[in-house]
């Protein structure tokens, strides 16, 4: 899955698409969560909603347009067919029904993938031992069947057969996969719970919070800092390593975060902001240095890494009213960005 990294129709038969090559208006990068170029995204011209995030795979797999308009299909339909265990046993994909499923896009040639797999094996075993109905489906991005077999031999879960390239591609298209490793966690109905399974597994090694429903506000850590690259992020820096202060900061911004998330969920769109609280540690210090932020705390910011832009609210006291006004002004394009 080679790609360049950044810093997954009108009336039912009309189509529109967005293609991304630098330079382009950065709002489109953020709106459609583009992280690689080239990217081809199909949207519904009437509603603006995304039909397919991985248009390049669509064009490769369906050059005649036989599956047009390439809208999303249920997981159960896309995955339908035989699955493998590493002992050679086969089973039907219907065996996944009624379970939470982690759809794991990974490859042996990818060092971060191998590191995550080691942790994921332990998490998988803990969840199974706790009596939870959970299965992982490996969707390989390996470059040969021998590599696939070697890598899959380390995994206690099931996989799409390597030879079934069409089904592997359809799963990539379904979730708009732009990089690996990616772990998509589904509920027993096949609906996405989180696209951030990788972060959740690394942050919750004891799996106490499985199946990892998203939190409106996250505490910034080494493992979830990668999400800062996914689009604009509100980050509230606090001046203490005390968990109590971080928790108070989360409670302060959580109602605003929940309001924004609910508003966009009702429109079947992803929220335009992620929300974080950052304490005092080496990672936060590095982030402040990289973005050239003042040492003040509390410090309310919105960081847009793709646009290399920041928005800073440096006041003595952060109140819910200040946060809500700051977010509203950002979403209305009323704030003047400073360069990162």
TrEMBL record:
E.C. number(s) listed in UniProt: 1.8.1.8
One GO biological process term: negative regulation of Wnt signaling pathway
Thioredoxin domain boundaries: 69-226
Residues spanning the membrane: none
Protein name: Nucleoredoxin
Highest taxon listed in the record's lineage: Eukaryota
Organism of this sequence: Columba livia
Lineage, top ranks: Eukaryota, Metazoa, Chordata, Craniata, Vertebrata
Gene Ontology MF annotations: thioredoxin-disulfide reductase (NADPH) activity
Entry's family note: Belongs to the nucleoredoxin family.
SUPFAM superfamilies, per database record: Thioredoxin-like (SSF52833)
Catalytic reaction list: [protein]-dithiol + NAD(+) = [protein]-disulfide + NADH + H(+); [protein]-dithiol + NADP(+) = [protein]-disulfide + NADPH + H(+)
One cellular-component annotation, GO: nucleus
């Amino acid at each position: 899955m080679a790609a360049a990294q950044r810093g997954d129709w009108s009336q039912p038969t009309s189509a529109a698409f967005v293609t991304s090559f630098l330079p382009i208006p950065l709002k489109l990068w953020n709106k459609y969560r583009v992280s690689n170029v080239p990217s081809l995204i199909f949207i519904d011209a009437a509603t603006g909603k995304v039909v397919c995030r991985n248009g390049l795979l669509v064009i490769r797999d369906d050059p005649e347009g036989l599956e047009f308009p390439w809208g999303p299909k249920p997981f159960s339909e896309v995955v339908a067919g035989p699955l493998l265990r590493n002992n050679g046993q086969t089973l039907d994909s219907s065996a996944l029904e009624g379970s939470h499923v982690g759809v794991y896009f990974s490859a042996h040639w990818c060092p971060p993938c191998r590191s995550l797999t080691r942790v994921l094996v332990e998490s998988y075993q803990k969840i199974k031992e706790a009596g939870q109905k959970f299965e992982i489906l490996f969707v390989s991005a390996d470059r040969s069947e021998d590599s696939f077999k070697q890598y899959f031999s380390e995994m206690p879960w099931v996989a799409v057969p390597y030879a079934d390239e069409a089904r592997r591609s359809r799963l990539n298209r379904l979730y708009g996969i732009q990089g690996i490793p990616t772990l998509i966690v589904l509920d027993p109905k096949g609906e996405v719970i989180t696209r951030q399974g990788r972060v959740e597994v690394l942050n919750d090694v004891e799996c106490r919070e499985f199946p990892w429903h998203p939190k409106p506000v996250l505490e910034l850590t080494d493992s979830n800092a990668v999400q800062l690259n996914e689009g604009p992020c509100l980050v509230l820096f606090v001046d203490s390593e005390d968990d109590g202060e971080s928790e108070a900061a989360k409670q302060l911004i959580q109602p605003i975060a929940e309001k924004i998330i609910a508003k966009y969920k009702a429109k079947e769109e992803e929220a335009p902001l992620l929300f974080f609280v950052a304490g005092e540690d080496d990672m936060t210090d590095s982030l402040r240095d990289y973005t050239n932020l003042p040492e003040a705390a509390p410090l309310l910011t919105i960081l847009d890494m793709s646009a290399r832009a920041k928005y800073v609210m440096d006041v003595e006291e952060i109140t819910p009213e200040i946060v809500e006004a700051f977010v509203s002004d950002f979403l209305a394009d009323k704030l003047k960005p400073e360069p990162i």
